[in-house]
Design a protein that fits this description.
The protein is of the alpha/beta class. It is 32% helix and 18% strand. Strands 1, 2, 3, 4, 5 and 6 form a 6-stranded mixed β-sheet that branches. It is globular. The structure holds zinc ion. The site of zinc ion has 5 residues, from helix 2 and helix 3.
Length: 200
């Protein structure tokens, strides 16, 4: 069995607006629990089931394990920290980016919060998790459809390809990228201190 936690690192406290945090947690939990239930159908009777947890980290740096998933939520005024081709978030035509490293043994992952709608961002969390866990690039993942499709929104539905992709990789070890937290925390401190160049 695997105990998998999705850590959404929200250093800039973007999810404190309205019902963003609640809607984000609700959407991610619904989608991920569906995948966990699918995976648990293959667990032998008597063995402990896979479990899930969702955490939005705003104040304290998370300490995810290799089975967990860590994604950074970035403001549109900031820039890519994971190495997206378009560094300026405002100019990016994508919403999320996952950079695999060491042949998929490590990965960096970020989402640009282009809007404060938790259900939309929640779909993006699962989309990027699919990239992260499967090590599939755009050409391999996007044709699988559902939450793996090139474009996802609040109404996107999981399909069995997505469920299989998550279930098959629950125990795959990937080293999460923790330095992103410090990069974001440094920028936030500069912003809160009134530095006009905080986002450079
Ligand atoms: Zn994608």
């Amino acid at each position: 069995m695997a105990n998998v936690t999705i850590h959404i690192a929200d250093v800039f406290e973007l999810t404190k607006i309205g019902s963003f945090a609640k809607d984000l947690t609700t959407r991610v939990k619904a989608l991920f629990d569906d995948c966990i239930a699918f995976a648990n159908k293959s667990v032998k009777q008597g063995d402990p089931p896979h479990t899930s947890n969702i955490v939005i980290a705003t104040a304290a740096k998370p300490a995810p394990g290799k089975l967990d998933f860590l994604v950074y939520l970035l403001p549109i005024e900031f820039h890519s920290i994971a190495g997206a081709p378009t560094k300026d978030n405002l100019l990016a035509d994508h919403w999320g980016f996952t950079k695999l490293e060491q042949g998929g043994a490590a990965a960096k992952c970020e989402i640009i919060a282009k809007l404060t709608q938790g259900d939309v961002i929640g779909s993006l969390v699962i989309h990027e998790m699919l990239h992260y866990k499967t090590a599939k690039g755009n050409n391999a993942l996007h044709p699988t459809g559902g939450l793996g499709a090139a474009t996802v929104d609040a109404a996107s539905q999981l399909n069995d390809a997505n469920r299989r992709d998550i279930a098959a990789n629950l125990k795959k070890e990937i080293t999460p990228w923790l330095d992103g937290w410090d990069i974001c925390a440094g920028a936030k401190a500069r912003r809160d201190g009134g530095d006009p160049l905080w986002n450079l």
